[in-house]
């Protein structure tokens, strides 16, 4: 008889993510759980602090994608103070954000997606890492990635003071205009960015799409879920990372709903499970039906593939070409194959670079008027952006002096939490049993199921040794630990 | 590329918002102004590949960071070289550590420091949101700063004239 084991939710995860796999009496997987640590105590931590500090405070939640939080917080402050930034400020914000997304996506593709596709999911463990990618694509490509990354980060520093915790976004605008003398630097870098993004697509095409084993993995049922999809779109329903409305499509691709940042609480509710710190957002109007997919389940997905599914196209030409090719290859919209996130990510690199070029070349972007001073009494503010890993909501409430009385964040990984749980469970059931519990290749393929989402453990710390804090536990029907792996 | 003028780096790692995770930054703050110009003291909340930007073209680097021991009580400040931290195996840009950065830089032919020394301070809570460290960890800051000075003085004896 299979045993149900309840994991004490008080158990410290120590900043780690955890996958727990339970086998039944016959040695097959009865259930697999993926647990993401929450931002414990954050809401209490910020109570009493000036709301204007939030772009600085929240950018410290994550050491890898701080710009996403910085931008979501900045937009929440615009809403809090009911202030509309001048056009140059909006363009600067979106340009910086495009630069950040380009850099982040490039990093992910070459150093995260790479181990699964460029090197191969069943390659020896010693090669299945970022070093293996450099070994496969070549040192020159590796240097190009590092060089491009440095150039982009230097540009963010030029406008934001520093790249990791930029002093950039302010309620009603930005801290510093772009000088006409600096504009050519941005334009030239953007052109190189477009070339680099297109080159990345060629790498993906050559290494992944021309490899039948990889394409079979992408389209396999093991990595497929038919859920709803969510992403930010502009007025023409095209992907936009910085602004717009949040659009949701159903598993057939039909528009299910559209809402603004202010309306997120009407659209999304959170489900609680006793075995996890994290709550699982779901679509309110559909309801929580468990960890299942399909049109009757409120589970939805965010991140690159979801954004492309939720939109009607891309706003720049080369990205649009690549978007059309993806859907033509994978059988039309929407695509439900989780591993296609890697492909969608490359397409978004192209869009980010092209959008960067458009904005950098815009004559208005060097206008010195970059701030509208807030004059209204603050009350409630909500902001939304597309972080590289998906839709990110920031919600603040303050007193009249602008001190935080309440804060709520729904980060991208939370939005994906239910779908990630589905992915891990499905992959584990397909690949793991008592015979394969020690099979490194099988375990890696389970990890691929969640790595495609690049879950961001926002409360990850610097404490040594700095390796990926994921723990995988495989238990038998009596709950005895058969194997523990720390990644 | 020529080595930097400030070729020695003292780098405090941590997150000031995550209670004891701030300790690396606090120790670096204590050391600021202690050394001549060839020794740069910095702190950062970044991790992953961003560490590469800090390390490139340095001769020697002292990293000051926290570690979570099995039992905090009785644990001591540890010193080690980078080799003791472990092999590179991360598959996520989120969790690239010093070991991975070293291997990436070597593979790409980038100049990695001749020596990376790590000063690891035991902590009990690096994940709760708070600007205040635990009292027991706060009490370790002075000792950690003193040990950091001794390491830097051994690298550059001229520094001994400057330390306070």
Helical stretch tally of chain A: 15
Total DSSP E strands of chain A? 15
N- to C-terminal distance of chain B: 34 Å
CATH superfamily assignment of the domain at 84-224 and 337-373 in chain A?
Cytochrome-c3 Hydrogenase, chain B
Explain what the structure shows:
The complex is a heterodimer of chains A (487) and B (164). Chain A has 487 residues and is an alpha+beta fold. Among the domains of chain A are: 75 residues, no CATH class; 178 residues, Cytochrome-c3 Hydrogenase, chain B. Chain A is globular and about 70 Å long. Chain B has 164 residues and is an alpha/beta fold. Chain B has a 5-stranded mixed beta sheet with strand order 2-1-3-5-4, covered by helices on one side. In chain B, helix 1 packs across helix 5. The longest helix of chain B is centred in the last third of the chain and has 15 residues. The termini of chain B are far apart.
SSE layout and pairings?
The complex is a heterodimer of chains A (487) and B (164).
Chain A: E1 17-23, E2 29-35, H1 42-46, H2 54-58, H3 66-81, H4 87-117, H5 130-137, H6 139-160, E3 169-170, E4 173-174, H7 183-209, H8 212-219, E5 228-233, E6 245-249, E7 255-259, H9 264-267, E8 268-271, E9 280-283, E10 300-301, H10 304-310, H11 317-329, H12 341-360, E11 380-387, E12 390-398, E13 404-410, H13 412-415, H14 417-431, H15 440-451, E14 470-475, E15 481-486
Helix pairs in contact in A: 4-5, 4-6, 4-7, 4-12, 5-6, 6-7, 7-12, 10-12, 11-12, 14-15
Chain B: E1 8-13, H1 23-31, E2 39-44, H2 50-55, E3 60-67, E4 78-81, H3 98-107, E5 115-122, H4 135-138, H5 141-155
Parallel strand pairs in B: 1-2, 1-3, 3-5
Antiparallel strand pairs in B: 4-5
